[in-house]
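Lab manual, section 2.4: Encoding a predicted structure.

Procedure: take the sequence of the chain (554 residues), apply the prediction step described in section 2.3, and record the output as structure tokens. A sample record is shown.
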Amino acid sequence: MKTDIQIAQEAELLPVRDIARIAGLTEEDIEYYGRYKAKIDLSVMGRPQKEGKLVLVTAITPTPAGEGKTTTTIGLADGMRRIGKRAVVALREPSLGPVFGVKGGAAGGGYAQVVPMEEINLHFTGDFHAIGAANNLLAAMLDNHIFQGNALGIDPERITWKRCVDMNDRQLRYVEDGLGGGKNGVPRKDGFNITVASEIMAVLCLATSLSDLRARLARIVVGYTREDKPVTAGDLKAAGAMCALLKDALKPNLVQTLEHTPAIVHGGPFANIAHGCNSVVATRTALKLGDYVITEAGFGADLGAEKFFDIKCRIAGLVPSAAVVVATVRALKMHGGLPKTELSQENLQALQAGLPNLLRHVSNMKDVYGLPVVVAVNRFPGDTEAELALVMRECEKLGVRAVLSTVWAEGGKGGEALAREVVRLCETPSSFRFCYDERMPVKQKIAAVVTEVYGGDGVVYTPEADAQIARLEALGFGGLPVCMAKTQYSFSDNAKKLGAPTGFTVTVKNVTVSAGAGFVVALTGDILTMPGLPPVPAAEKIDVDADGKICGLF
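Recorded output:
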């Protein structure tokens, strides 16, 4: 069996100018980054033509068995084109952290991939490097301001801005810097986030123009004065230089699928610690280029889809037409308590026990957000007819179709049935709505997500979180959407609670504001903004030969 990278390296790619032509772009609309990658000019998203229909691909709660959400997203777009529809796929860029860690790349798999796979998974067009540079420039200017006399009166004990690096490096979670005193800086406690957790990433992904990007950068809160007043990047006069570093990074990236479907890959916030969607400019650009735009949001629907709807769609004024929930029989059996070592065996009892996880996600799409929905069953060779029939029957009880998807093995051909159902759903009347009114107090918005989307009984706040919410509301940040930072492995804040748990509460430990991005972040459980590497990192298997050919990358 060929690996993903072997399939990608054996593919015949079209020059990106040809992909641009397929997408309806001219030479003036793109900037080349080599033979197979290009940046799209921001003017394209302002074209007067009617926008296409927006379809979100989301998934059940992730397990080690895998779900294949990105693979399904790509295969669905290819399937759309095979049935004669003008489709564009819009994805996030991979982070180097997971690529070298345990999760691997994020360019799809099998015969449903975006290419050039190795470049997309590694440096790509340098967007993440620019984000890291802008983040760390702000950190440097903040510490320099304090060193040079601290005219703003910043309290060194209340600095909230961290440095970042796009790598899983637990050693950097808590550091002390400025050691040595004198000309070496002001000693203080500090730390690093992974780049995808930086507010700069969220700002870039939610900005609608270069001027909006600059304005958002200026609003970023980096800490507080001794008088409890917020200090912003604008106060430090850093926004202009940061925007200069991000000028080209704001432009979305054009690549292709293995079947030459235009693919826009841009931005990459994680959905467990940020809003988990690709950029607004990428989505808006794709909507001008395709009759159907197939996009995805990170992790399960309780995280990625919730934030896609309640944060991205709200802020950008987007109205999705349909949702696809990806599931596998294997993963559902894990949610039913079956060990990973036994997933290849038919087990209807475990599958029945795990199905409530899928059904809750589906119900949320229909009943909370008012969207037409289809279940894409990502078929594995070991799935039995009895198991597949059980999934179909349970979905039918909710009035939802389940469609088999074989895009990993067959590419767009294996996504044709799913594509036809999505087209049908896009013509179905819907009443898209948000989970909460953003004018609600912060606690009511958090409670709405926990009770209506997660299925929990309520929320518990630490004294620190209570005080933080009161302070943020007093400062005028109470009217922003909420971004829940929560484990991706459970509806609850406890990663061990699989399936569709009930009778639980979610504990909010800290609440911060991402004023530039435009949301309040509620941190729950033991969520980390700087991951660590596993016992056997994926990086150990990656290598390059004398001719520069990469191997071992997923």
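Check your result against the sample. Residues 103 and 538 are 8 Å apart (CA to CA).
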